UniProtKB/TrEMBL annotation:
Catalytic activity, EC: 1.4.3.-
Organism (species): Exaiptasia diaphana (Tropical sea anemone)
Function per UniProt: Catalyzes the oxidative deamination of primary and some secondary amines such as neurotransmitters, and exogenous amines including the tertiary amine, neurotoxin 1-methyl-4-phenyl-1,2,3,6-tetrahydropyridine (MPTP), with concomitant reduction of oxygen to hydrogen peroxide and participates in the metabolism of neuroactive and vasoactive amines in the central nervous system and peripheral tissues. Preferentially degrades benzylamine and phenylethylamine.
Regions that span the bilayer: 535-555
Name recorded for this polypeptide: Amine oxidase
Length: 559
């Protein structure tokens, strides 16, 4: 059944006003007209109502329906499925992902899902040199060895990377608040740690850029403990950064990542996915049922509810009884990162002709990170640029044409080629403007929050369960994390509805987390032959002192 036939059967309008009106609900595949006769047909009590038709919500629906035979309904506020994945199509550029799109080789759950849905992966271009531009200096690089404007800069950032990698391994993935130094690390911002550990301007600039790149937030906004947990969740600093073998940005989906949600919705059934259903109230009745009210007064009844709503947006929903105090406060303290995702199209891949991969990182605005986004068959040459954190907050005040001009001028400088000033097309998505996302990639924990509130994030509230990529243990923030969270919450619901016993539940729940993969290792040179800045200074002092002693000794012997 095709997604364009999504219907709103079983809707009911529960209001005292006249009901001779007609409700128009629009979705991405046309206009859907629902009259009051359709709305009044609501009579089914679902086993499970799922809020959110992103990957977490639709995967949960698929598992509960196909594996446990439960009657499900998915309620989506938007006029489309996909959540924070968004694929736009146009004859001038084919298709383009403006939301989550990258898949790493160790993200086995989403890779299996892609295969099950008969989708195809392609490898991101990583041939050629990457560009690093910090403190006004442009440098070319291959591999993970850091560059710097000086020897001290190189040693500084290398030392930061290695120490952060080691520290992240000390943070438990399921319970980060139990780390031995959890209280100490949760009181620090990442910026404070960077200034404590890095001695050079380059080291501080490069470290800050890395934080902005993976969390779309400024280092002073993020708890060090949360940052370390997030790194561990993604398999360490190199996996989080790399586009080559084993990295998080290794693959994309031919045709776009929103196809995952489109095909899941078709598989679940068009009558089970209801668009334009903005949940406003959740009333847990004494009878054990849950009454869910959407905009326009439309209501649903279910035994269980799964929410995949981003934590920062859950306060828009009124709960009766109210959410527990810690849970309510936790959701008030998880701001979402800021990003504008841009794609600039050209008539040819001029950067490849200069032996550049298309990837660059820099400390200037607007784009702080970019990748080659040319189609796998070589058509529609493009650069995908990420405008992150404070940069996104600053340039969002400009017009689209003004941002386009800044982006192209920056590309001309990064790639050393004036052809970057002549794009054939430019599109962008400001996720800060998306009222049902509130930003991207995920909500972050400021200092002092994870140790006090982290444990309530996944906890169910009576008959309401919670999922979403930020609740995952592995690859939180990625599509992989969304799939993991769906598997975990589906087991919780199936167990609570008596579909599996306690012994089965304990056995299966331990299998939901993605198997851990070893961190990608730094080279022998980086680990053992590159001292920190203080270490180098200490060696220098020791060397000078040794030479001085030798000179003095020789002098005394001659005397």
């Amino acid at each position: 059944m095709h997604l364009s036939r999504l219907r709103t059967d079983s809707y009911r309008l529960d209001c005292r006003a006249k009901i001779d009106c007609k409700l128009m609900l629009r979705h991405g595949f046309g206009m859907l007209k629902v009259d009051t006769k359709t709305i009044q047909k609501m009579s089914t009590e679902y086993d499970v109502a799922i809020i959110g038709a992103g990957i977490s919500g639709l995967c949960s629906a698929k598992i509960l329906q196909e594996k446990y035979g439960l009657n499900v309904v998915v309620l989506e506020a938007r006029d489309r499925v996909g959540g924070r994945t968004l694929t736009v199509k146009d004859s001038s550029f084919g298709y383009c992902d403006l939301g989550g799109s990258y898949i790493g080789s160790t993200q086995i759950k989403v890779k299996q899902l892609v295969e099950d849905l008969s989708l195809e992966l392609y490898k991101i271009n990583d041939k050629g040199y990457d560009v690093h531009y910090f403190l006004g200096k442009r440098q070319l690089n291959k591999g993970t060895v850091p560059l710097g404007s000086s020897l001290l800069g190189i040693l500084d950032v290398n030392n930061f990377w290695i120490h952060i990698d080691k520290m992240s391994k000390q943070v438990p993935l399921d319970k980060p608040w139990l780390a031995a130094k959890a209280d100490e690390w949760d009181k620090l911002t990442v910026k404070e740690y960077i200034h404590k550990k890095c001695w050079t301007r380059y080291g501080r600039s490069a470290a800050s850029g890395f934080v902005q790149g993976i969390l779309t937030s400024e280092p002073h906004e993020v708890s060090l403990l949360f940052f370390l947990w997030y790194l561990h969740s993604g398999g360490g600093i190199i996996r989080n950064w790399e586009i080559s073998d084993g990295g998080a940005q290794e693959f994309k989906i031919v045709g776009g990542s929103q196809q995952i949600s489109n095909r899941l919705a078709n598989r679940i059934g068009s009558d089970k996915v209801h668009l334009g259903s903005d949940v406003t109230h959740i009333y847990q009745q004494d009878s054990g049922s849950v009454l869910i009210t959407c905009g326009y007064g439309v209501q649903y009844k279910a035994k269980k509810v799964i929410s995949t709503v981003p934590p920062a947006l859950l306060n828009r929903i009124r709960f009766n009884p109210p959410l527990p105090g810690l849970k309510l406060q936790a959701y008030q303290r998880m701001p979402v990162g800021s990003i504008i995702k841009t794609v600039t199209f050209y008539d040819k891949t001029f950067w490849r002709q200069k032996d550049l991969s298309g990837m660059f990182t820099c400390d200037c605005v607007p784009v702080e990170e970019a990748y080659d986004d040319t189609k796998p068959d070589g058509t529609h040459p493009a650069i995908m640029g990420f405008v992150l954190a404070d940069s996104a907050r600053d340039v969002c005040k400009l017009t689209k044409d003004e941002r386009k001009k800044l982006v192209c001028e920056q590309y001309a400088e990064m790639y050393g080629c004036q052809e970057a000033l002549q794009p054939v097309n430019y599109i962008e998505k400001n996720w800060m403007e998306d009222e049902y996302a509130g930003g991207c990639y995920v909500g972050v924990f400021p200092p002092g929050i994870l140790t006090k509130y982290g444990k309530v994030l996944r906890e169910r509230f009576e008959n309401v369960h919670f999922a979403g990529t930020i609740t995952a243990s592995h690859w939180a923030g990625y599509m992989e994390g969304a799939v993991e969270s769906a598997e975990r919450v589906s087991l919780e619901v199936a167990h609570s509805l008596g579909k599996i016993n306690e012994e089965e539940f304990k056995s299966l729940i331990s299998q939901t987390t993605t198997p851990g993969f070893p961190f990608l290792q730094f080279s022998f040179t980086q680990k053992y032959l590159m001292p920190s800045v203080p270490g180098l200074l200490g060696l220098s002092v020791l060397g000078v002192g040794t030479i001085a002693l030798i000179v003095v000794s020789i002098y005394h012997k001659k005397s």
